[in-house]
Amino acid sequence: MKALRLLDAGTLTATMATARSSARGRSNFNLHPTLADPVQRFLNVLQPGSYVRPHRHEEFRWELFLLLEGAAVAVVFDEAGNVTEHVELRRDAARAVEVPGGVWHTLFALAPDTVLFEVKPGPYRPLTDKDFAAWAPIERSPESLSLLAEWERLVGRRSA
Question: How confident is the model at residue 1 (pLDDT cuts 50, 70, 90)?
Fold first, then answer.
C-alpha cells in the first residue's frame, strides 16, 4: 500500500463525469479515509443548476471552500432567508471562503465542472451534520429551481 494519497487529473475527470450524470448535479470525492475522521477533506464538484439546500452547522463546525476549477458563489442568509452576503469564487477574484459554524449558507456553480476542495471538522454524521433552513425548499422541487434562479439574478450572473 502506498503512503501518499493523490488527487490526479484522472480523479478530477471521473468526479466531474459523476457530477454531470448525477440527478443532483454534483459529486464528492473523499480524501479522508472514514466518515469518523476528525478532519473531513474532499472534492465537491458542482454543475450549474445544482441546488444545495441552505443549511447551517453547529457553532464549532466551520467549512472551508477552496476553488480549484470553474466558478461558484457562496451565499449567506439571515434567519428569515434574506441574502446578507455573497462572494463569487473565481480564478481572478476570491479563491477561498470560510463559512463559520451557525451561519445559514449555500453554494452554487456558475460554470460547468466547478471543483471546490472542502475541509471541515469531522466526524461526519449524516443525520445530524446539517440543520436545513425551514424557509428553503427541498432539493429538486420546482420551488428550489426558482430560488436558485433568484440567487443567480441577485449576483447578476446566470449559470452556464
Answer: low
How many residues are given for the chain?
160
pLDDT, tens digit, 9 for 90 and up, residues 48-85? 999 999 999 999 999 999 999 999 999 999 999 999 99
The CATH number for 74's domain is 2.60.120.10
Looking at the DSSP assignment, which residues form a beta bridge with residue 137? none
* Domain assignment present for 79: yes
Residue 18 dihedral angles phi and psi, to the nearest 5°: -65, -45
User: What rounded mean pLDDT belongs to the chain?
Assistant: 93
Cβ neighbours for 10, distance < 8 A, ≥ 6 positions apart: none
Beta strands per DSSP E along 19-112: 26-30, 39-46, 55-56, 63-69, 72-77, 83-89, 96-99, 104-109
| Any domain includes 73 | yes
User: Domain total for the chain?
Assistant: 1
pTM: 0.91
Mean pLDDT across the stretch 123-129? 84
58 is a domain residue: yes
Which string of b and e fits 46-78 if b means at least 16 CB within 10 Å?
A: bbbbbbbbbebbeeebbbebebbbbbbbbbbbe
